[in-house]
Design goal:
alpha/beta; Rossmann fold; 4-stranded antiparallel beta sheet; globular
Amino acid sequence: MLEITQVDKFFGGFQALKQIDLKVTTGEFRGLIGPNGSGKTTIFNAISGVYQASTGQIKFLGEEITRFTPDRICHAGITRSFQIPRPFKEMTVVENVMVGSLFGKGRKASGKEDAESEARRWLEFVGLKVSENTMPGSLTAGNLRRLELARALATHPKLLLADEIMSGLNQEEIAQASQVLKKIREEMKITIIWVEHIMSAMMNLVDRLTVLDYGQVIAEGTPGEISQNPKVIEAYLGEEETASHA
């Protein structure tokens, strides 16, 4: 489904991504991990068109999308959530999701009532109950992340890029978010690439993991394989283990 080949990304003299190769198959649930600053969100930005890769190639469903704009990438079938939720603050929660319904890849809503009805279905799917006039500013951190997911899903994607959707959540909210991800994968058959720091949640959900360090892929494998990989333990898991004992 997604094939990234020899991708570099430079910001001036700083190289954020170094010769990235990544293949994700249709229906896969792939985890993407690494220390802060390792390039995880930069990969998402390159895939989704926020930044263009400096060199290399990105293909989606056989079509090269390396130089596509974000709207073309969305219409091709790729959507994303952001590490820091970015709702349209002057729109209601329902209107935020309506944007995805009206401008995404899937069938276009025939009017306001149709778009609103679809938006409410997506909000229900992610477990977010709101009134007609609820504004994003009144939502908790967990519910803002549900809003991000609902708005992304309303575009009818084939590939979801989920960027730290559990950051700042408590244990109950993490469990709820895990169930939503399972529903997205199992009921909607959407391929998922997930960046997350909460390893316990990720290890129970993903099929495979790709590990980054200093902008490079240092390991790939199943959760069991990755948890035993010395390079990963040194670069990432060891760092988390040290933090947990601090």
